[in-house]
Design goal:
single chain; mainly alpha; 4 helices
């Protein structure tokens, strides 16, 4: 008889330790490239970038620092902020009539 173990919430993203599996895959590939560049060329910058990525993608309570930075940049920099600050003309007429009485 086979026993299967299912997660409590099937819509939840797959996680391993503190990272999602997508972030572990990206981090693992970046770490491999970083180690090769460190040993062959002596270039440390890719390793530092990989460590920063690993720190920013730590997930606690289903959110990460990188998600917050993406949302903040999207709201403050990349999305259009458009506001209309004028009164409708009929409201102005009603106020003027009330003031004249």
């Amino acid at each position: 008889m086979n026993t299967y173990i299912y997660p409590q919430n099937l819509k939840e993203t797959a996680k391993l330790w503190l990272w999602s599996l997508r972030d572990i895959t990206i981090g693992g590939a970046a770490l491999l490239i970083s180690i090769v560049s460190l040993t062959q060329v002596g270039f440390v910058l890719p390793l530092a970038g990989t460590m920063v990525f690993a720190f920013l993608t730590i997930r606690l309570d289903d959110t990460s620092i990188l998600d917050f930075i993406k949302r903040a940049a999207g709201f403050l920099i990349f999305s259009q902020q458009f506001y209309i600050w004028k009164l409708k003309s009929r409201h102005c007429k009603v106020k003027m009539k009330n003031q004249s009485q």
